[in-house]
């Protein structure tokens, strides 16, 4: 079974440009999460999808970030326009339905560098 | 509100020696606690979890952690370090028992194994 897949694995863009990160969750997982780790800091929650609906987007830093999950399958996270402080590693995770404890599986992350 | 403090951004031990990675948490409600590991170029992998059952939790690869409410700690241990244990370890707390809902992570600890 394929795990959570993220691409690109690395992206280097200039300040002001747009970048789109993609996450393919494990097939059948309704829950999809985005997290971010800025260098030297904690991994922080960004948002949570249940199928195609945003369940919780309290961690999104500002309106330059737009997450979508059309059709409840893969998700994209767009940063437009990118700023220097957006650099970091963006992780995606997925899990099954909320039926007691369900393990979340993380992708290997996309390392975004804004120069 | 929740928070996690991991003592030591880098911990170095000799191969065969005891591994001890420290984690203290703060939570306004009974917490669910997790340890994740990230090997180079891989995603976060769940090592073990505490979900209010036994206070001594055993995980994969010979790791275990003990929940101590009086000390608000959830330290990770392994009796004998192996070279393959070299990785970054993250302690996390959540108020829910499922998936990756609102995980609050510590800053991570790099475990270095000396031959």
Secondary-structure blueprint:
The complex is a heterodimer of chains A (115) and B (115).
Chain A: E1 5-7, E2 10-13, E3 19-24, E4 31-37, E5 43-50, E6 53-56, E7 65-68, E8 75-79, E9 88-95, E10 105-106, E11 110-114
Parallel strand pairs in A: 2-11
Antiparallel strand pairs in A: 1-3, 3-8, 4-5, 4-9, 5-6, 7-8, 9-10, 9-11
Chain B: E1 2-7, E2 10-14, E3 19-27, E4 32-38, E5 44-50, E6 56-58, E7 64-68, E8 73-78, E9 87-94, E10 104-105, E11 109-114
Parallel strand pairs in B: 2-11
Antiparallel strand pairs in B: 1-3, 3-8, 4-5, 4-9, 6-7, 7-8, 9-10, 9-11
Which percent range fits the helix content of chain B?
under 10%
Mean pLDDT of chain B: 91
Reading the helices and strands of chain B in chain order gives: EEEEEEEEEEE
Please give the oligomerization state of what you see.
heterodimer
Unreliable sequence segments of chain B: none
Largest sheet of chain B: 6 strands, mixed
**What percent of the residues of chain A sit in helical stretches (DSSP H or I)?**
under 10%
What is the rounded distance between the termini of chain B? Answer: 41 Å
Choose one word for the global shape of chain A.
globular
Shape of chain B: globular
Could you walk me through the main structural features you see in this protein, from its secondary elements to its overall organization?
The complex is a heterodimer of chains A (115) and B (115). Chain A has 115 residues and is mostly beta strands. Chain A has strands at 5-7, 10-13, 19-24, 31-37, 43-50, 53-56, 65-68, 75-79, 88-95, 105-106, 110-114. In chain A, strands 2, 4, 5, 6, 9, 10 and 11 form a seven-stranded mixed sheet that branches. A four-stranded antiparallel sheet of chain A has the order 1-3-8-7, with no helix packed on it. Chain A is globular and about 40 Å long. The termini of chain A are far apart. Chain B has 115 residues and is an all-beta fold. Chain B is globular and about 40 Å long. In chain B, the strands form two sheets. In chain B, strands 2, 4, 5, 9, 10 and 11 form a six-stranded mixed sheet that branches. Chain B has a five-stranded antiparallel sheet with strand order 1-3-8-7-6, with no helix packed on it. In chain B, a hairpin with a 4-residue loop joins strand 7 (64-68) and strand 8. Helix content of chain B is 0%, strand content 56%.
């Amino acid at each position: 079974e394929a795990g959570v897949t993220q691409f690109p694995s690395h992206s280097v863009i200039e300040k002001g440009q747009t970048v789109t990160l993609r996450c393919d969750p494990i097939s059948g997982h309704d829950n999809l999460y985005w997290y971010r780790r800025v260098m030297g800091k904690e991994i922080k929650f960004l948002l949570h999808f249940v199928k195609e609906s945003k369940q919780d987007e309290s961690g999104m830093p500002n309106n330059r970030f737009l997450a979508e999950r059309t059709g409840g399958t893969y998700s994209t996270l767009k940063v437009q326009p990118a700023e220097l402080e957006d650099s970091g590693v963006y992780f995606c995770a997925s899990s099954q339905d909320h039926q007691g404890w369900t393990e979340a599986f993380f992708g290997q992350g996309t390392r975004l560098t804004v120069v | 509100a929740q928070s996690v403090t991991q003592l030591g951004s880098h911990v170095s031990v000799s191969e065969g020696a005891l591994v001890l990675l420290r984690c203290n948490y703060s939570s306004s409600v009974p917490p669910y606690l997790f340890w994740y590991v990230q090997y180079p170029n891989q995603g976060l992998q769940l090592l073990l979890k505490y979900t209010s059952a036994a206070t001594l939790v055993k995980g994969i690869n010979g790791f275990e952690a003990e929940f101590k409410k009086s000390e608000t700690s959830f330290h990770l241990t392994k009796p004998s370090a192996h070279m393959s244990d070299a990785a970054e370890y993250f302690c996390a707390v959540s108020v829910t028992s499922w998936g990756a809902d609102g995980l609050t992570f510590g800053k991570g600890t790099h475990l270095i194994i000396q031959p």
